[in-house]
Structures are given as C-alpha cells and as structure tokens.
Design goal:
With 298 residues, the chain is mainly alpha-helical. It has 15 helices and two strands. It has helices at 18-29, 57-68, 76-86, 89-93, 99-106, 125-129, 138-151, 153-159, 163-180, 182-185, 196-215, 221-234, 247-262, 264-286, 288-297; strands at residues 118-119, 136-137. The chain is elongated and about 105 Å long.
Length: 298
C-alpha cells in the first residue's frame, strides 16, 4: 500500500472495524506539512488488524456474518440473506431451527405466494430507481412462518421431516390469503395484512386452519379459501380500524378476531344471514312483502 493514498477506499473487503480504518484515514489526511506544527504532538495512532489473503466471496460472506451476527444495529434481513447464500439448501431445510428461513426463501421464488415481494437487505435505492417495492423483509417472513408452524402443531409434527410438502401447503395457504384479500395484499400502507400485526395474526390463525384442512385431507388453495371467505366478510383489515394495535400482542388480537369470524357457528350465521338477505330481496322484487302484510292483518 502506498502513502499518500489516492483514495480512502482500498480494494479490501472490510468485515469489521470500518470506523477505526476511517479514523486512521482521517488522521493521515490531517498530517501537517514539514514546515507546520503537529497539533497532536507527533503521536500516530496504533491500530491492530488482521489481513486474510485469498478468500473467495462465500468465505468472506461467512466471516462477515460470524463477526457481525450479534452486532447491535446490524440488519437481520441482510444476515439471513447471507445465511441462505452460503448454506446448502438441504442443510437449511433439514434443520428445524433454520427450516423457517428455508421456507421463507423458497416462498419468494417464481410462482410462489410471495414472488417479487421479499426484501433481502442492503439498500433500497436500486429498487426505488426501477419503481419496484418489496414490502416484506426476508427475516419478517421467516418469523411469520415460524409462528404459523408453532400454531399448526399437528401439521408441523407430521410434516417436519418432509419440507417440500410443508412448503407446498404453506404456499397454498398464503396464495389463498392473497386471492381472498387482494386489495389488502397490494396496499401495505392502508391495510394491516402485510404489516407486522397482520402477518403475525394471519400466521397464528393460519396454523389452526392448516390443522383443520389437514384433518379434511385437503391442502389446495380452494380448501383454504372456504375458511377465509367468511373472515373477509366479517373482519376489516383497514389500518384505521386497528388504531392502537401493535406488536406481538397486536398480532394475537388480530388472530383472535380472525378465529372468531371463522368459527363453525360464525360461518353458519354468516351463511344464514346471506340466505335470508337473498330471500328477502326476491320477495321484494315479486311484491310479496305487501301480500304478507295483508295476510297478517287478515
């Protein structure tokens, strides 16, 4: 390395201590000329370092994650993305601890429920330039699916060793959610569905639905839609209707309301109301309301 340098950005992949490297650069840039007095008394900072030569990109990424994995303020989404990149798919899928991350990664692929919607960390400037939005973070989707698996005790217990089948049934559930709540799915700002309380609520609610569909030997998108339609008619997902609801507790409030709306008796009541409403509308068109009143007076 030459001094003085032309640039403060040498061709080195810095995995830790950027602030110390920058501090040295700043000190060097302020070194006085030979005929000037050094305000620091001539002291030069001593900075220890280790330099690893010949690492390939995967090794650099692994080293970065190991060093910064618990660093305060580090973007967890970025770390999860690195984990996916450096870990063989079968290893992620075969470990119950990393299975939710594998599922989240797979569900963002082409043809899956979250295609083109998952943000994998780093800067969003590139996405803004091309007018593309990724409303769900990879680590948020990982947490969502982890919550859903915990809530689907029966399904998870029987399919935990078959990640591909588990992926397909989870994917079909979220495709049914997307299909049933289309407006909320595409408007994160004004609806809670893709916000933390919405994802968490639909995950906890979805766990019980997974077990119900499993008992019926189902698993197609249509099998989930029949549970979601009564919810769509009974529960508003507009953000304004959930003022003051937030956090893990908020997700549980959403889940409880969804479960109540999808309960068998609630579904029956909704169907009866719909049936009676249609019947009354037909009577009015046929002019039978007046006849019924006349018969009653008689």
């Amino acid at each position: 390395m030459d001094f003085p340098k032309d640039s403060k950005n040498p061709h080195v992949s810095r995995v830790d201590g950027n602030h110390r490297l920058w501090g040295v650069d700043e000190t060097l840039s302020k070194q006085p000329a030979d005929d000037e007095e050094d305000e620091n008394g001539g002291d030069f900072p001593i900075v220890s370092y280790s330099l690893l030569i010949g690492l390939d990109p995967a090794q650099e990424a692994r080293l970065f994650r190991d060093i910064n994995g618990e660093h305060k303020g580090m973007d967890v989404t970025h770390l999860d993305s690195i984990m996916v990149r450096i870990t063989p798919s079968e290893v992620l899928a075969g470990n119950l601890k990393t299975l939710p991350l594998w599922l989240a990664d797979k569900m963002s692929e082409q043809g899956r429920a979250f295609e083109g919607m998952v943000f994998r960390g780093g800067t969003r400037e590139g996405l803004k330039r091309i007018g593309e939005q990724r409303p769900v973070k990879l680590n948020s989707l990982k947490t969502t699916l982890s919550q859903q698996l915990k809530a689907a005790e029966k399904t998870y217990a029987l399919l935990s060793d078959d990640p591909d089948t588990l992926l397909n049934i989870l994917d079909n559930y979220w495709k049914a959610v997307r299909q049933t709540f289309d407006e909320a799915w595409h408007d994160r700002k004004n609806f809670i569905l893709l916000q933390a309380i919405g994802l968490g609520g639909f995950a906890k609610f979805g766990g019980s639905i997974l077990d119900s569909v499993f008992d019926e030997e189902g698993g197609d998108v249509a099998d989930f839609v029949k549970y979601l339609q009564p919810v769509r008619d009974a529960v508003s997902l507009r953000r304004d209707d959930w003022t003051g609801i937030a956090g893990a507790g908020g997700a549980q409030v959403v889940a409880d309301k969804l479960l109540k709306a999808s309960a068998p008796d609630a579904v029956k009541a909704a169907r009866i109301k719909e049936k009676l409403s249609k019947s009354q509308s037909i009577d009015q068109r046929l002019g039978l309301d007046g006849q019924a009143g006349a018969d009653s007076n008689a």
